[in-house]
């Protein structure tokens, strides 16, 4: 059996990844410090003999024996990664060094969950992997953006310097069941607000765009990247190219949930990117991957999830 380490395994994406790997008959070691992850996300796996959990902060060295590493540990939502920005950078940078060191000792493949944030507020649209990005090094998003950029540097230096087998994927905004209801991300915010009949809070004038990928599609892409041909390290964009303004998203959510919520406008946070859309040509050619779930269908699943947890 292949033994797989998933850091950040009790988070939103990590828990879905654990599900998928176990379904593929792998043994999973989930490592998490529960900063933003929740035991609830992995509760259904605790009786599975192929699943193991370890409470651990990846900014400290980890000594385990595994065959593959997926490095997902890092808060991903702006309010969470800005809560303790120094720890966010430490998690990205020192965490990456620790996980790369582990991969080097074991001579195993390691995948990094990087982000479209490495492109910052981009001048190139849609974003291709060869675009170097436009990132403010000293702003409130920098702990995350620069931390993730430095982690990418480390991955490619470990590859060049130590011949390590690395895989780097740049994840664009992903949504779905198990998002944290209070994590402040736009999809969870709008759905929870609509379900409670609260105002829908659009930051700025709502003309900024994002491209939203449903979690099942994203996990397909992630597993595809881990199992991609030897020598292909990426970085590769994984996301859904369907691009929407935040106003369009608000209207879609209100339309699907129904109810009485009205749209209100609040100040745009500093350095909020104006547009974001992945060019996924590379993922298509290298991984044979493209997303299948339309925004409306994914939103329906996510709404059903939040409706259920809010009723409890
Ligand atoms: P999440 O916050 O739900 O999951 C992150 C997990 O990492 C949590 O379980 C958290 O407790 C854990 N964690 C944080 N710091 C840790 C540390 N020092 N040691 C051990 N565990 C730690 O977020 P997510 O959306 O599931 O994101 C997972 C990964 O994917 C992150 O690396 C994120 O940067 C990346 N990503 C996500 C998105 C997205 O839209 N969801 C987009 C781009 C990149
Ligand atoms: N946003 C919004 N209302 C909210 C939460 C977010 O209008 O209640 C906007 C936010 O300013 C950004 C976009 O939605 O322009 C996506 O925000 P999110 O935090 O989900 O992701 P990121 O900015 O990291 O892509």
Q: Give the DSSP E fraction (strand runs of 2 or more residues).
A: 15-25%
Low-confidence stretches: none
CATH top-level class: Alpha Beta
Class by helix and strand content? alpha/beta
CATH homologous superfamily classification: NAD(P)-binding Rossmann-like Domain
**How many β-strand stretches?**
13
Strand order of the largest sheet: 3-2-1-4-5-6-11
Could you tell me the CATH topology label: Rossmann fold
Give the names of the bound compounds: nicotinamide-adenine-dinucleotide, uridine-5'-diphosphate
> What overall form do the CA principal axes indicate?
globular
CATH-level-2 architecture:
3-Layer(aba) Sandwich
Mean pLDDT: 96
Describe the sheet with the most strands: 7 strands, parallel
State the order of secondary-structure elements, H for helix, E for strand: EHEEEHHEHEEHEEEHEEHEHH
What descriptive keywords fit this protein?
312 residues; alpha/beta; Rossmann fold; 7-stranded parallel sheet; two-stranded parallel ribbon; 9 helices; globular; binds nicotinamide-adenine-dinucleotide; binds uridine-5'-diphosphate
């Amino acid at each position: 059996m292949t033994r797989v380490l998933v850091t950040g395994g009790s988070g939103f994406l990590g828990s879905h990844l654990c599900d998928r790997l176990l379904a593929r008959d792998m043994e999973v070691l989930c490592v998490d410090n529960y900063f933003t992850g929740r035991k609830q996300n992995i509760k259904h796996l605790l009786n599975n003999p192929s699943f193991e959990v370890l409470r651990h902060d990846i900014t400290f060295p980890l000594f385990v024996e595994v065959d593959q590493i997926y490095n997902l540990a890092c808060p991903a939502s702006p309010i969470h990664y800005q809560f303790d920005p120094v720890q966010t950078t430490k998690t990205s940078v020192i965490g990456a060094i620790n996980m790369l060191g582990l991969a080097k000792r074991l001579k195993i493949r390691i995948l990094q969950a990087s982000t479209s944030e490495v492109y910052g507020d981009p001048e190139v649209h849609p974003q291709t992997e060869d675009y170097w990005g436009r990132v403010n090094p000293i702003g409130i998003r920098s702990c995350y953006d620069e931390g993730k950029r430095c982690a990418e540097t480390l991955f490619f230096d470990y590859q060049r310097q130590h011949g390590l087998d690395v895989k780097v994927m740049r994840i664009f905004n992903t949504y779905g069941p198990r998002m944290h209801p209070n994590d402040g991300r736009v999809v969870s915010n709008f759905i929870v607000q609509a379900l409670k009949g609260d105002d829908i809070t659009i930051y700025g004038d709502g003309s900024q765009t994002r491209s939203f990928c449903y979690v099942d599609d994203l996990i397909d892409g992630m597993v595809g990247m881990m199992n991609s041909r030897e020598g292909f390290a990426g970085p590769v964009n994984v996301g859904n190219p369907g691009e929407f303004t935040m106003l369009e998203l608000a209207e879609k959510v209100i339309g699907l949930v129904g109810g009485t919520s009205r749209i209100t406008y609040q100040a745009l946070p500093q350095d909020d990117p104006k547009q974001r859309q992945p060019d996924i040509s590379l993922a298509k050619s290298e991984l044979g991957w493209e997303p299948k779930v339309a925004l409306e269908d994914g939103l329906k699943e996510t709404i059903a999830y939040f409706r259920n947890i809010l009723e409890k």
